[in-house]
Amino acid sequence: MINFLKEPKLPNKITVGGHDITVTWGKDLKAHDGEAAWGLYGKSDNTIEIADDLKTKQSQVVEVLLHELLHAMIFEGNLQTYLKSKEEHVVDVLAKQMTIMFKQNPDLLKFIGDNLGKS
Fold first, then answer.
1. Residue 2 falls within a domain, yes or no?
2. Domain that holds residue 69
3. What's the first-to-final CA gap in the chain, in angstroms?
4. Residue (of 8, 80, 97) closest to 41 by Cα position
5. CATH number where 36 lies
6. Structural domains of the chain, count
7. Which of 104, 103, 94 is nearest to 71 (CA)?
8. What is the pLDDT of residues 47-103, one digit of tens each?
9. Looking at the predicted structure, is the pLDDT value of residue 46 above 50?
10. % the chain with pLDDT above 90
11. Is residue 27 part of a domain?
């Protein structure tokens, strides 16, 4: 079977706070509890891995990348102390809602890109 879906090109790095985070595809990702994972954020080595199973699922890649970036922002802002056991739920809801919002409002990303750094 021929796959006509284009594989998304991940950004090589994304800066969150003062840290450059390397973004790569990963195989057989496992969360800390041993469960299969779509993405992982490595606090100690500033990495995000996205499951290579998602290479043909562009919207899901976006959602997973946003999810892991939110974990990085929470870590950078030292918010995990406040969120405790609710962090995963909060991150999951925000990533899903951001993905839907950007999908439903394609001009929003253009507006943000066009206007950041202008003032």
1. no
2. 13-114
3. 51
4. 80
5. 3.30.2010
6. 1
7. 94
8. 999 999 999 888 899 999 999 999 999 999 999 899 989 999 999 999 999 999 999
9. yes
10. 72
11. yes
